[in-house]
Amino acid sequence: MLRGFTNVDIADFGCAFNAYRRSAIEPVLGSIGKQKFTKALVLSAGASVVEVDLDHRAREDQSRYSPFRLVRLSLHVLAGFWPQPIQWAGILIGTSSCLLSLAAAIWGGVIWIASGDFPGQIFLAALVLGVLGIQGFILALVGEYLGRIQRDVEGRPLYTVERELG
Fold first, then answer.
1. Residue 12: Cβ within 10 Å count
2. Which residue segment(s) compose the domain that 29 sits in?
3. Of 20, 67, 94, 131, which residue is least crowded by CB atoms under 10 Å?
4. 13 burial class (0-12, 13-18, 19+ CB within 10 angstroms)?
5. How far apart are CA 6 and CA 9, in angstroms?
6. Bigger pLDDT: 120 or 156?
7. Would you put residue 151 in left (φ > 0), alpha (ψ -120 to 50) or beta?
8. Is 145 found in the same domain as 127?
9. What long-range pairs does 147-151 form, CB within 8 A, spacing at least 24?
10. 93 and 72 in one domain?
11. pLDDT for 137-162, tens place per residue?
C-alpha cells in the first residue's frame, strides 16, 4: 500500500535497518515520533531512498502481526499519508444523493402532473436525499480541514529546496 502512495519500489517499509543523510531527515524531524513509517515520511518530504538487501533469518515463532493489527496499520497509512478518503467519500455521497434527490423530485413531479395526486412520500424521499447530499459535501469540506490541520500539526514541509540556482 505504501508503494502506491509514495511511488517508490521498496519491498519492506517496515524494516528497522535504515540509514539517512542528515539533509534528508532534518525536514521531518518534528514528525518522526508521530508516524510509524519513517521511511515513507522521509520519502514524502522529497528524499530519494535506495534499498539494500539484507539476509534475514526466518522467524522461529508466530508473527506478532494479527489480521486486526495489519488492518490498523493499513488505516494508519491511509490516515497518515493520504487525507483524501474522507473528502472522496463526502463528494461521492453528496453527488450521488443530490442526483437521486433530483431524480426523485422529477419522478414525483411527473406523477403529480399525470395523476393529479400529490406524491408526498416521493417528495419526502427527495428532500431527505437532498439533505443527505448537502451533508456529504459538508463531510468533504471537513475532510479538507482535517487534512490541513494534520499537515500543520505534523510540521511537514510543503516542499523542500535542495539548492538554490543563481
1. 13
2. 1-53+66-82
3. 67
4. buried
5. 9
6. 120
7. alpha
8. yes
9. 147/83, 147/84, 147/86, 147/87, 150/83
10. no
11. 999 999 888 878 877 776 666 666 66
In residues, how long is the chain? 166
Hey, what's the cell of 58? Answer: 526466518
Contact 136, 93 (CB under 8 A): yes
- One domain for residues 75 and 136: no
- C-alpha–C-alpha distance, residues 113 and 93, integer Å: 30
Question: Under a CB-based contact definition with an 8 Å cutoff, are residues 86 and 135 in contact?
Answer: no
Amino acid at 83: P
Cβ–Cβ under 8 Å, residues 83 and 147: yes
Q: Do 91 and 151 fall into the same domain?
A: yes
Q: Which residues of 110-143 are buried (b: 16+ CB within 10 A; e: fewer)?
A: eeeeeeeeebeebbebbeebbebbeebbebbeeb
Confidence bin at 2 (pLDDT 50/70/90): low
Count other C-beta atoms under 10 Å from residue 149's C-beta. 11
Cell numbers placing 40? 515513507
* 71 and 138 co-located in one domain: no
Answer for the pair 104, 132: CB distance below 8 angstroms, yes or no.
no
